[in-house]
Design brief:
6-stranded parallel sheet, 6 strands, alpha/beta, about 220 residues, about 50% helix
């Protein structure tokens, strides 16, 4: 399968560099480029890419709003979004993940991580730059949430779902979780889908953020 990618960044040099990296891969095709957020939304609706690489700071509409409209809970026909930015500020990281981003990557992360993030998004996984992940973990203090907050809009998670959410937050794949819990990968996938529905999140990043906040990451 060829992964179709849209690049949204207001700097032509950045778009050209990202395109050059991605098009060296036999399974990735860049189908469009946008220089601002409004154009990114228009192109995403018309081209239906598998993944949109979105910068944070763009004219007309910033990357956070683009992410919310493309990948957020209210998106009718969601597109997987990987935020690709120079800035790893908290006011960007948290809203991007809350709005449904499948990844948060710093532009200095390098070609290999960029390609990996695109493939991870398509696979339903997520990739966050290591330095950002470390800061997320340090800020989200385990156990700070009360028992009352363990419930979610779609209902409380079961003990098994809490266990699996913790494993997701630790960065483990469905296969890893299945092996550790002695269940099938299909069963893990079913649990992950149930967790996403209950939490009202689009992807594994949303599950991870919730698990970190609730204090059972890696449990």
């Amino acid at each position: 399968m060829t992964i179709r990618v849209l690049i949204a960044d207001d700097q032509e040099m950045v778009r050209r560099g990202v395109r050059r990296i991605l098009e060296t891969q036999p399974d990735i095709e860049v189908v469009g480029e946008a220089a601002d957020g409004a154009a990114a939304l228009e192109l995403a609706g018309r081209l239906r890419p598998d993944v949109a690489l979105v910068d944070i700071r763009m004219p007309r509409l910033d990357g956070l709003e683009v992410t919310r409209r493309l990948a957020g809970p209210t998106a009718v026909d969601p597109v997987r979004v990987v935020v690709l930015t120079t800035f790893d500020l908290d006011e960007y990281v948290y809203p991007a993940l809350r709005h449904g981003a499948s990844g948060f990557l710093l532009k200095r992360s390098g070609p290999a991580l960029l390609v990996e993030a695109v493939r991870a998004a398509v696979a339903g996984d997520s990739l966050i730059s290591p330095s950002v992940t470390v800061r997320l973990l340090s800020h989200l203090t385990p156990g700070r949430a009360s028992a009352a907050r363990r419930t979610s809009p779609g209902g409380a998670l079961t003990e098994r779902e809490i266990e699996i959410a913790g494993q997701v937050a630790a960065g483990r794949t469905n296969a890893d979780i299945a092996a550790q819990l002695f269940i099938s990968a299909g069963t893990v996938k079913t649990h992950v889908a149930s967790i996403q529905r209950k939490l009202g999140v689009r992807n594994r990043v949303g599950i991870a953020v919730h698990a970190w906040e609730m204090g059972y990451a890696g449990r």
